[in-house]
Amino acid sequence: MIVAVVALIAALTGTAVAALTTGDVVRVVKKYATRSAHSTADPALTGTPGSSPEVALATEITAPRKGGFLHVTASSDTFGTIADSFSCQIAVDGTLDSGSFRTTEVGPGEDAEDNCGTNTVTKVGSGSHTVQFQYVNRASSTTVGTTTLDVLWVPLAG
C-alpha cells in the first residue's frame, strides 16, 4: 500500500520516486485532500414559523483552493399532530440550491412523524463557505427534532 501511495505521489508531482521530498508529499495532500464539516443538534430554528426560510442548522467549511465541489447532505426528524406541509432545502453562501428543495408533511395519527432530508453537489471557489439547512413554510405546531448537516469538499482532479 505504501509503495502505491509513493508511486502515486511521484506520478502527480512528476518526480522520480528516489527524489521525492516531504514538500512533494505536502503539496499533493494540500492539492488533492478533501475537507469536511459536520453538525448535529436539536435545533432552535432561527426565523419565524411560516416565514421563509428558517435555519435549522449551519456550518462553515474552507475550500483550500479553487476547483472543487461541496457535497452536502442534511436531514431532520419532524413531528406534528396537526396537518402541515412544509419544505426543507440547502443554501450555500446565502444562495438556495433549488435542486435540494424537498417537501414533506406531518399530521395526526400514524403520520405524526416524518423525516425531511435532502442533498446537493455544488461547485465552489477557494475560501470559507457557509452552508445552511433551512425549512420553508413550517407551521408553529410542527417540531423539528434531531438534525444533521454533513459537508464534504472534493477537489477537481488535476
Oligomeric status: single chain
The Rg value, from CA coordinates, equals 21 Å
Tally of individual helices: 2
CATH architecture of the largest domain: Sandwich
Distance between the termini: 22 Å
Mean pLDDT: 82
Sheet having the most strands: 5 strands, antiparallel
| Spans of at least 5 consecutive residues with low confidence | 1-6
Beta-strand fraction estimate: over 45%
- Listing every helix as H and every strand as E from the N terminus to the C terminus, the arrangement reads HHEEEEEEEEE
CATH class of the largest domain: Mainly Beta
**How many individual β-strands?**
9
- How many structural domains are formed by the residues? 2
Q: Any idea of the CATH topology of the largest domain?
A: Jelly Rolls
Give the proportion of residues in helices.
10-25%
Q: Structural class, judged by helices and strands?
A: mainly beta
Which word captures the global form? Answer: elongated
Can you lay out the helices and strands and say which pair or pack?
Blueprint: H1 2-13, H2 22-32, E1 35-41, E2 54-63, E3 68-79, E4 84-92, E5 95-96, E6 102-106, E7 113-124, E8 127-136, E9 143-155
Antiparallel strand pairs: 1-9, 2-8, 3-7, 3-9, 4-5, 4-6, 4-8
